[in-house]
Amino acid sequence: MSRLFAVGLGLVALAVMTALERTGTLSGVRADPCAVLVTYLAFRFDLVGGAISALLLGFLLDVTAASPTGLHQLTLMVLFVLLRVVANAVQLDPGPKLWPVAAAAAFFHRLMVTSLVGLFSSGTQPLGSVWDAVWATLLTNAILAIPLLWVTDRVARRVHPEPEHLFLIK
Fold first, then answer.
1. Are 145 and 156 in contact (CB under 8 A)?
2. pLDDT digit string (tens) for 37-88?
3. Is 158 exposed, middle or buried (0-12, 13-18, 19+ CB in 10 A)?
4. Which pTM was predicted?
């Protein structure tokens, strides 16, 4: 249960991102702290602990984004499983050094959500909004990932001193 600290960090990060979006500071750019946290969970924790945290982060994102129920839960779980496969294939230490992976994961999460919403709604151009601010979104998520991964790593090392992730390739 102590792995659920990422849910609290995700809630705080979502509150900050929502406040910045409401003030117009991030116009047209979608920062995704939950995808960054799921990236850290995939590289640091075991499958069950990371999956439960990813599901709870997806639920929080569904509630705060007013999206269809389960949309972000599904996409964050798919993202977690894909990142878990990458974590097993590539040995990277979790922490701020994961920022390029986290920025790419946040973009891929946005692409999955936009594709699923466009698939089940009629009369929309689903992928047009993804490509409108692609470079600004990647840059924003890369900048967001560094301090968020650093804070998450510090908290995780206090809760669990040793990573639970068992690398398949040493």
1. no
2. 888 888 887 788 788 888 888 888 888 777 788 888 899 899 999 998 888 8
3. exposed
4. 0.82
- Phi and psi torsions of 66, nearest 5°: 55, 40
Give the integer Cα–Cα distance in Å for 65 and 88: 31
| Beta carbons of 7 and 152 less than 8 angstroms apart | no
| CA-wise closest residue to 43 among 100, 126, 107 | 100
Residue type, 75: T
Pick the closest to residue 37 from 144, 110, 115 (CA basis): 144
Q: What is the largest CA-CA distance in the chain?
A: 51
Q: Is residue 152 pLDDT above 50, yes or no?
A: yes
As a whole number of angstroms, the distance between CA 73 and CA 70 comes to 5
Specify whether the CB–CB gap between 149 and 101 falls below 8 A. Answer: no
